[in-house]
Structure formats: C-alpha cells, structure tokens
Amino acid sequence: MIVIVKQANNKEQQDIELDKSLKILKRKLIKEGTFQVLKEKRHYQKPSEIRHQKEMTLKHKRKILKRSKDKKKGNQSAYRQNKKR
Question: What is the CA angle 60-84-58, rounded to 5?
Fold first, then answer.
C-alpha cells in the first residue's frame, strides 16, 4: 500500500491534503479488513464465544436465504404464518 502526500504551499492546503490522504488510507484499510481485525482483537473472546457467534451468523444467513427462496417461489404467506406463532 503506497500513500502519496503532495507538498502544499500554505498551511490550509497542507491540512486538506493530509485529510484526503487519511481518508484514502482509511478506505484502503477497511477494504483490506484491517479495521475488522483490530475491532475483533480489542477484547479477548473465549473460544466458546467465537463458536457461538459463528453459529448465530450462520443461522441468520440461512434464514435470509430461506426467506429469499420463499419470495422467489411466491410462498411469502408461509413465512408470515410461522412468524405469528
């Protein structure tokens, strides 16, 4: 990752260029996933918590996929009936 900072004549231009370069750097770090790793590493999680979290995300993804398949089939009312129970 290469960040190029241009030299500016006055102080205001230097601040603007610095802000732009920081935004670019932040976007690149988010795209690479570095911020997500830092967020995960802030607090220690027990292995059981990590497993539980993965299971819950898989359940959520499956639920969304099932809902989208039902919508394509036109079986939307079955989802609503199950939700009322």
Answer: 10
Domain ranges of the chain: 1-43, 45-85
Task: For residue 27, give Cα distances in angstroms to 7, 13, 16, 23.
Answer: 22, 21, 17, 6
Token output for 39: 């967020």
Cβ-contact 54, 43 below 8 angstroms: no
Please tell me the distance from the alpha carbon of residue 46 to that of residue 72, in angstroms, as a whole number.
Answer: 40
- How far is it, in rounded angstroms, from Cα 78 to Cα 68? 13
For residue 17, give every residue at least 6 positions away whose Cβ sits within 8 Å of its Cβ, in sequence order, or none.
5, 6, 8
Which residue is associated with the tokens 């292995």? 47
**Tens-digit pLDDT profile for residues 9-30:** 676 777 788 889 999 999 999 9
If you average pLDDT over every residue of the chain, what do you get? 81
- CA pair distance 17, 54, nearest whole angstrom: 41
